[in-house]
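Sequence in, structure out. First:
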Amino acid sequence: LTVLNAGRRYLKAEDLSGKVFVTSGLGGMSGAQAKAAVIAGCVGIIAEVDEAALLKRHRQGWLMEISNNLDHCVARLRDARKNKIALSLGYHGNVVDLWERLVHELDTTGELLVDLGSDQTSCHNPFNGGYYPVQLGFEEAKQLLSTNPGKFRTLVQESLKRHVAAINRLADKGMFFWDYGNAFLLEAQRAGADVEKRGANKTEFRYPSYVQHIMG
């Protein structure tokens, strides 16, 4: 319902075939995003750093494909988008790398490859494994978390700033992003990312919440 209503409200589209939804998280609550993309008929690219979560969703049949190669992901995205094929593709890697690759595609080809975007990392708990920084691989980041949590926190906040910068770049070109109630925008703001709404008070963000703006 969230993906369908985001398409209706922000893309003015009842039919999401050929539209691309990019997000992250295939864990406990976020795992439904892959299935939702296919039910809605769009192309869903979902990033997840934990291979175990990806494999679980793939075994369940909720996730159609898995890849750890961004070149492959972009190629599959282009093909499914062009041919209006419903697809859920799990990218085994950090969502920041995925967002930045989409910015690179925009900068080099002039093509905006994503229509809808969100995030379901566990940003209510970003410094204890809910969000993994793009600067490190998954296992390396887990090791740092246990040995130097202060450094881990710094990397998470740097990663959040990069995360938002890429989203902002694509949103400026017409991609519609929303907050999934996971404290992503709040933690990004605390990290110093550019998420505040222009001309509004500091408690308002430039991107909407799915609760009020989509489900409401």
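Second:
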Amino acid sequence: NAGTEADVYISVYGERGDTGSRQLLRSQKPKKFLKGQTDIFAVEAVHLGCLYKIVIGHNGLGSGNGWFLDKVVIKDPVTDLDYTFLCHRWLDKGQDDGNIARELPVTDASMLPGRQELELKREKTWAAEKWKFRKGITLQFYNRVTRGFVCLYPDCRVDALGDKKNKYGKVFSMWMCA
């Protein structure tokens, strides 16, 4: 009983204004707001700049209108930033504090661009390193404790004992800077 059949409304607030109250009508799913389901909606609005809060709630109508909301993620198509608004509470007159609307601040807005930058770096690193995981490649890692090589073979075998005289092994020093 964590989903709702009530009409759900959202207002999005940014540095350049707000959307006003908008009913979330057309989900990409046949039935909206079911327990454990992620619904996706398109909301047309002028660009609001950096988002800082939303107000989300429902009209309390219909049977089983109480709703447990985990979070809302808004993707800004202009900046390609994702804004996350954590809730993890009930919007239900008979549960929690009895409110059917919640004002949710953005989750640490200063960190979101940094996370996206980190994700971009991860993608670039994977693009540079994925050749190592192609079919037929044997990976070798030098183990400083055993002073031998640990080999990961294409057929999923692992030689963890480390052959100290592996003629193909090369020792590389790797430095990590923070």
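Remark: The radius of gyration is 25 Å.
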